[in-house]
Amino acid sequence: MADGHRYMQQSFSTPLPAQFASNTNIATGLLLNSLLNHFIADPSAAQQAAAQANPDHANQNNRGMYGQNHPQGHNPRLNGAAPGRQPNMPMFYNHVPQQGHPHQGHNAHHQVLQAGHSGHGARNDLMSHSTFSSGIMANASPYTTNNLQNGHSVAARGGPAEQPANEHWQKQMRLKEESDRAHSAMTEQHQPHYYARLKAPENKGIGGALTAGGTNASGDTEEEVRRRPYQVEKRNRRQDWHNLDMSGQGLRALSSALFSYDFLVELYIASNRLTFLPAEIGKLRHLKILEASNNLLSELPPEIGMCTSLEKLLLFDNQIRDLPYELGSLYKLDILGIEGNPINPGLREEIVERGTKSLINTLLEQAPVPLPPSPRKPIVVQEDVSPSLERIKVMTWNILCDKFATTNMYGYTPTGALSWDYRKERILQEIRDRDVDMLCLQEIATDVFRDFFSPELAQNDYKGVHWPRPKAKTMNEKDAAAVDGCAIFYKGSKWILLDKQLIDYANIAINRPDMKNQHDIFNRVMPKDNIGIICFFESRRTGARVIVANTHLAWEPTLADVKLVQMAILMENITKYAEKYVRWQPLKDKRGIQIPQSVSVESDIPKPEMPEPGPSQEYRSNTDIPLLVCGDYNSTQESSVYELLSMGRVTPEQSDFGPHQYGNFTRDGVAHPFSMRSAYVHLNGTPDELSFTNYVPGFQEVIDYIWYSTNTLEVVELLGPPDQNHLKRVPGFPNYHFPADHIQIMAEFVIKQRKGEKVKGVIHGGGSGQQDGGQDFGSGSK
C-alpha cells in the first residue's frame, strides 16, 4: 500500500540569538535589525507588487511598505517606533515542544524579498472558470453557482448579516470576534505580535525535547502514519520553534525567505496591508493554522491547496469574492473564516448552512480535471550498445490496493479518481504503454490478479505469477480473494518460467534454528505477513537465464529492524536458490513448450512471432546468473535495507537492529555474495534525478527500487521523473493522472557478454519448483 512517513524534523540551523534563547517572555520581539530584512520587502519592490495586485492602492506607492508616510533614510521611524529604537520584529515562539520537520534552504534568509507574485496572474473566477492555470480537459464542467444553492445577498465588508444559529457558524463568529479584538489591539493600541503575546504564558522556554514516542509536529493520526514509512533513527534533529507571528506590522508583501521555514505549524500575518499571498505559500505543507485576517486580500493563490495540514484558515475582513478549486484539497480544514468578505452568495450559503467541510468537499468534487502532465521521458544511460546483446526491460509498481484507497486516507483525492473502476483502467493502460518484459506489482489482490489483470494482460502476451499475504490461508474463500500480495508478469513469447518460490518471511524466521526461541522473532517479525517472490526464467531466443525477485516489506516506522530481517531472509534465499539454479538442467525442446494464448480467436491483434530458440546457457556460480530484485522496500537511502543491498553486508552493530536479538543476524551480521546497485543511481546528481517514488502530503521520498547485479547486467535506459511543473499544485497522489500513491519505475538492461561463455548440450531436464498457493495463469511453465 502507500507508504511514506513524515521524517522526524531536522533542527533549524538558524536558532534564536543566545541572549533570547532562554527567555520565553517573547523577547524575540526585540531581535536584531538584520533579521527584519529577511521578512520585510524592499519598499520599491513592494510598491510595484502592491500596485500590480491592487491598482486601487497605486497612489500609496510613495509611502513605503510599513504604512502611510513612512520616512526614508538611515534612521527612519519604523512601525511607529521612535528614531533610534528597535522596530517591531517578527516573533518566534514555541507553542508546544514538538518534534521537528526537515528543513532545507537554510541560506534562504539572504534572498531578496518577494516583490512580484509568481503565478499570481492566473487569477480564477470560481463561479465561471477553472483555477487550474494549466487548463482543463475538454470534457470538464466548470464550477458555477448552479452547483450551490443561492444564498444570502453579499453583505457589506464587515457589515451585519442575519445568520442561522448553527454550531459551525457560531464557532466562526466567535473566531471573528477574537480576530476583531486582536485587530483592535494591534491598530488602536499599537501592540503588534498580538498572538505571540497571547500565547506567552503557555510557553516555559525555547528549546524543548522531542515528545515521547517521536510524535511529529503535525499530529498525524495512526491511520496517516500507516501510509508513511521512515527510519526512526534517521533525520532526527531537534526543531525548537514552529510558530511565527508577523501580525500588525503594516506589511505589504512577504519575503520569499519566509517560505523556506517549511517546518512552520502556525503563521500569523493578520492586520497588515497584504494584497496577495505569494504562490510560495504552498511550500508550508506542515502549516495547521494560517491567520491572515484584516488584510487587503482579494483572492487566494491556487497553491494554497498544497497546505493539506491546514485546520484553521482565517481570512476575516478581506476583499475575497471567490475561492480556488484547489482549496478542496484541504481535507483537514475545520474552519474557513470568511465573514467580512464580499464572498460569492453561493459559497457563503454553503459554508453558513453546511459548514467548512461541506464547502471543501464540494470544491474537491466539482473541480475540473486538469490537463495531464508532460509524459515522463526515457533517459538514455548507455549508448552504442551491441544489438546482439539480450535486452530486458523491467518495471515495478505498488498499484495501491483498492481496500486501502479510502477517502479518510486520501481526502485530497476526488472520489472519481479514487475509485477502483477508474484506477484499474489507468493502471492497465500504463502497463500496456510501457510494454516491459518483466512487471513486478505490489498490493495486487488475488481476485484483481485472477479476474482482471491476468485475462487483460494475456492479450498483450503476458503470463503471471501471484501470491497473496499468508493471512489469506486463515480466511474463507471470499475474504481471502481480497487479500493483497505480490505478482510478477512476464512476456510469454520471450521468456520461459523455470521455477517460482514464495518467501514467507515470518514463517521462515520462526523456523530458523538460531531464531525460533527468541522473543523478538515472535513479538516483532512473526506478526508481519509480508512476502517475497523469486522466479527463475530462461530466454527463448538466447538461452540466457535470469532471476527476478519481487517484495513488499513492512511499512511501520518503528520496525526498521524487521525490514532489515525481511530483506536479509530474501537475500539469503536468493543465494540458496541461485546455487540450485546453477545446476538446473537445460531445456530439451523450447518449441515444445506452449506459448500462452495471447489474443482471442476473433481478435485482429497478431500473435507475437516466435524467435528461433537458443540452447540453455551454462553458469559456473550463483553470482553468474543475472539477478533483478524489485519492490516496495518502505526504506530510504539512509536505511539499513539500502546498506545491505548496496554494500553487501550489515554489521551486528547496525543501529536499526537496536536492542533486539535475531540469531545469527545480530551475532555475526548479514551478508550476501552479489554485487548489487540500484538502477536509478545513474541519475543521482543530474537534473533528472528521481526525488520520490511515493508522493503523499508530508512525504515524498524514494522507497521503491530496481536492484541489479552489476557483473551480469548493464543499465541502458531509465524512465525519467514526473513533470515537476505539474506537481506544483498537486499535494499528493493518487489523482486523475497518477492512479496510485506510488509511481512506477522502469529500467532497460542488457545482459553482459561473458568471457569463455559455454552452452550446455540439449538434454532432457528442468521443471518447476513452485509451491502450493502460487498462481500461474497460462500454460507451459510447469
Largest sheet: 8 strands, mixed
**What is the count of β-strands?**
24
Class from secondary-structure proportions: alpha+beta
Globally, the shape reads elongated
Through-space gap between termini: 31 Å
Oligomer: single chain
Residue share in β-strands: 15-25%
Mean pLDDT: 78
Helix content range of the residues, please? 10-25%
Contiguous low-pLDDT stretches (5 residues minimum) are 4-89, 92-161, 206-218, 598-602, 759-773, 777-782
Cofactor: Mg(2+)
Biased composition (Low complexity): 47-62
Biased composition (Gly residues): 763-782
Keywords: Cytoplasm, Exonuclease, Hydrolase, Leucine-rich repeat, Magnesium, Metal-binding, Nuclease, Nucleus, Repeat, RNA-binding, Transcription, Transcription regulation
Describe the fold and architecture:
This protein has 15 helices and 24 strands. It is of the alpha+beta class and 782 residues long. The strands form five sheets. The chain has an eight-stranded mixed β-sheet, with helices on one face. Strands 1-2-3-4-5-6 form a six-stranded mixed β-sheet. The chain has a six-stranded mixed β-sheet with strand order 12-13-14-15-21-18. A hairpin with a 2-residue loop joins strand 19 (694-696) and strand 20. The longest helix is centred in the C-terminal third of the chain and has 23 residues, at 560-582. The two termini are 31 Å apart. Residues 4-89, 92-161, 206-218, 598-602, 759-773 and 777-782 have low confidence and may be disordered.
Task: Provide key terms for this protein.
single chain; 782 residues; alpha+beta; eight-stranded mixed β-sheet; six-stranded mixed β-sheet; 15 helices; 24 strands; 20% helix; elongated; disordered C terminus
